[in-house]
Design brief:
The structure is a homodimer of 298-residue chains.
Chain A (H helix, E strand, L loop, with lengths): L2 H25 L8 H11 L6 H12 L8 H19 L8 E2 L2 E2 L1 H5 L1 H22 L3 H15 L4 H11 L6 H26 L4 H28 L2 H4 L5 H5 L4 H5 L1 H18 L8 H12 L3
Antiparallel strand pairs in A: 1-2
């Protein structure tokens, strides 16, 4: 990607990230009833500096369908709430046992295990409250709630995490690894795009295109994440690197080697960009984002 | 309550419980993507023998509004999923550390902490998936989703649990104890009634009546639960008794004494029944249920 395109994409995504952060902060300004430790824990994790990849995908998918991005902002916040809840629970001692997240102490490291479990629970519930309260027309809201719940549920995010925990102790194949990531990371990514598309009034053809784009980008994103961990790039990762190998965790570089993993990531991004054809010029930002996923690895 | 009324109520609620259990089992018959340990853990907790109080309240509230109970069944299942998720997480070692629930090993005792956390997470998400998929018209669905999410969230169920954990180490007052229970138990109970009412087409006056009934019954239910624990009635409780006192937990008998707690429970149930006036004869089952909450203590 030319460096001018990169810098333009970085500028746009920084603006979107700022808008998302401001909206997120408003949604967790609870009235009384939320104990102060719980409120602080939710704030600590939700407002920690993140890439905001999923909310940005919601907003850009809505834009690609010709819709004002602001209309999709509540849904963008909802997907970030679900993502943050999953990070809080994944980091727990009984799960991945990570003490650092997004460059800060993880939620349980800062507030204790009980509060961290509850902060995650509260964020998962809040995501549906925001969607159901703020997105209209109601038929679209119902589709968005059902798809977000499915992406967060036993056959997607939660199921992928459960298999990922087991995979630390198994040999594993490429298809098993892809199945874990399509559920653990992929589902939330393509669902973010579909939700943005639905709010933007996407046709069925456009929804299918967003779905394909999301599945390819999601998998590429995970391959790159594994590469960054293998190389020990803690700054880009925002968490300690090299842990995958120490745990004997199933990874793409571990199964395919570094070069083949890089080649696959490149192919996936090419396929993702080709899927955007039905949107014409309006998908420029989504294309730039896909190309940038590769850039993270350089 | 006359013993004929009691036996009629018990017969009806056993039928409803059976219908709820059958519907719950259908919703967790996941297709592939859900690892088998996770599926077993969800099944273990969701289908354990429970009173099904909240789903029965959904169904009876819909009936009181003149609606066929079957139309509210998906919502009845959704509230039971949220309730079961909260029991699984409350039982965790980092929270209340309970090894027995509903007469069976608690979820983490049977399947480990990581799987129990994930089983709870999956049930919370599934509740919204079922509501959003199965309840129509869509405007009603949105109100039901938003109210259920609020009842499960940081200012209600989760906030109440967070304060309850702290309350084990504080002196506490009656108003603090009531505030904990109105969030931890009460919110899900009056929300179950409101959701059933909304699906049944309740007027605003009827919704307010269901809300009042729910708040009174919910608090009475908690007072009785504390009394059963204080008396050591493990069979009615379905879990080990006497734990509240051992932990120095804030309870109604601890604050008010046994007699005054009993008197309050009776007054709350009387108020609950009076609130049902706008429904006339159609609220007979709700009234019988309220009276039966007191019976548990005899």
């Amino acid at each position: 990607m030319a460096s001018e395109e990169t810098s333009q994409f970085l500028k746009q995504s920084a603006q979107l990230r700022e808008a998302v952060d401001a909206a997120l902060a408003r949604y967790i300004d609870f009235d009384k009833g939320c104990p102060s430790q719980l409120r602080k824990a939710i704030r600590h994790s939700l407002l920690a500096p993140g890439k905001r990849l999923r909310p940005i995908l919601v907003l850009l998918a809505a834009e690609a369908c010709g819709c004002d991005k602001g209309r999709a902002m509540p849904a963008a916040c909802a997907v970030e709430m679900v993502h943050t809840y999953s990070l809080i629970h994944d980091d727990l001692p009984a799960m991945d046992d990570d003490d650092v997240r997004r460059g800060l102490p993880s939620c349980h490291a800062a507030y204790g295990v009980a509060t961290a479990i509850l902060a995650g629970d509260a964020l998962l519930a809040l995501a549906f409250q925001v969607l159901a309260d703020q997105i209209r027309p109601a038929e679209i809201t119902c589709r968005c709630c059902a798809e977000l719940a499915a992406a967060a549920g036993a056959t997607a995010l939660v199921g992928g995490q459960a298999d990922d925990l087991l995979a630390e102790r198994t040999e594993g194949t490429l298809s098993h690894l892809e199945s874990i990531h399509s559920r653990k990371t992929g589902a939330m990514i393509y669902t973010s795009l579909r939700i943005g598309g639905r709010i933007g009034g996407a046709s069925n053809e456009q929804l299918a295109a967003l779905d394909t784009y999301g599945r390819r980008v999601g998998l590429a994103f995970q391959v790159i994440d594994d590469l960054l961990d293998a190389r020990g790039d803690e700054q880009v990762l925002g968490k300690p690197a090299g842990k995958d190998q120490k745990r004997g965790k199933l990874t793409f570089p571990g199964l395919l080697g570094i070069e083949e993993s890089e080649r696959r990531a490149g192919l996936l991004i090419d396929e993702a960009c080709r899927a955007l054809a039905p949107f014409g010029d309006r998908a420029g930002s989504l294309e730039a984002l896909a190309r940038y996923v590769l850039e993270r690895n350089r």
